[in-house]
Amino acid sequence: MRRAIVDWGRFILIWAVCVLSFRAFAFGSYYVPSESMLPTLAVGDHFVAAKYAYGYSRHSPDITLPEGFIPTVDGRVLGQLPQRGDIVVLKPEGAPDALVKRVIGLPGDTVQLVHGRLVLNGQVVDRHESGAYDYRDDHGRTIHVTEYVEDLPATDGRVARHAILQRGDDGPADNTGVYTVPADRVFLMGDNRDNSQDSRFPYPDLGFVPLDRVIARAQFTAYTNSFCKAESALTCPGGDWTTRFGRNLKP
């Protein structure tokens, strides 16, 4: 009997170590708490993200490790630079929960918003209107938006094509100064451009995000608790709950 208990204890310990290692170094699952990534991700979406994509830092595990735990120059092991257009998971400074945003600017890039248009390194990024509609937000309010497809130039010569929402082109963050992304930082934005606290807003909101705090690349949606149903004259941005399973999140 005692031997059986020891064997079971060993099995549970090994299983726990394997699960924790998998979550820390391979893939993690995350929940979307806000509308900042509409129409790509809705409140209630659960998605899988690759933790190996950009290397590992002390922020990679579910519990952040002590400062200096990884003794490297930039605090990362096997570090890789994200691509523009990647949807990433980050652990922002001073916030208890992980966030999800899209990479817009890399170290050395300049980023600006002019009348709602994204200007990257002095060039206006192409966008194409794909429709206008009303939807009910998670507070029950009816919101009117225009949806565009934006052609963000990725760093490997590809175009990271993705949908964005705009309530208008002259909101508080639709006309900005020029942001120059520092070394070892990235500039992140939400796809719901007029409803996202992102790198357009300096710390303590978000500001430029250190690379060691970018912990994973979103891969695909696993399931959703979003049960939006199109109502009369109202739309579900990005589709209703029946279309949100297994959605590819890589640009």
What's the structural blueprint in terms of helices and strands?
Blueprint: H1 2-25, E1 27-31, E2 45-50, E3 56-57, E4 76-77, E5 87-90, E6 99-105, E7 110-114, E8 117-120, E9 123-124, E10 127-136, E11 142-153, E12 159-166, E13 179-180, E14 185-189, E15 209-210, E16 214-224
Antiparallel strand pairs: 1-2, 2-16, 3-4, 5-6, 5-16, 6-14, 7-8, 7-13, 8-9, 10-11, 11-12, 14-15
Family: Belongs to the peptidase S26 family.
EC number: 3.4.21.89
Protein name: Signal peptidase I
Report on this model:
The protein is mainly β and 251 residues long. The chain has a single domain, classed as Ribbon (Umud Fragment, subunit A). Helices cover 10% and strands 35% of the residues. The protein is built from 1 helix and 16 strands. It has a 7-stranded antiparallel sheet. The N and C termini lie far apart (55 Å). Keywords: Hydrolase, Protease. It is an enzyme of class 3 (hydrolase). It is a single-pass type II membrane protein. Its EC number is 3.4.21.89. It is found in: Membrane.
Please give the order of strands in the largest beta sheet. 1-2-16-5-6-14-15
Number of helical runs? 1
Mean pLDDT, rounded to whole units?
A: 88
- List low-pLDDT spans: 6-22
Straight-line distance between termini: 55 Å
Element order, helices and strands? HEEEEEEEEEEEEEEEE
CATH architecture: Ribbon
Shape: globular
Question: What is the domain tally?
Answer: 1
CATH class: Mainly Beta
Beta-strand residue fraction: 25-35%
The count of strands amounts to 16
Q: Indicate the structural class.
A: mainly beta
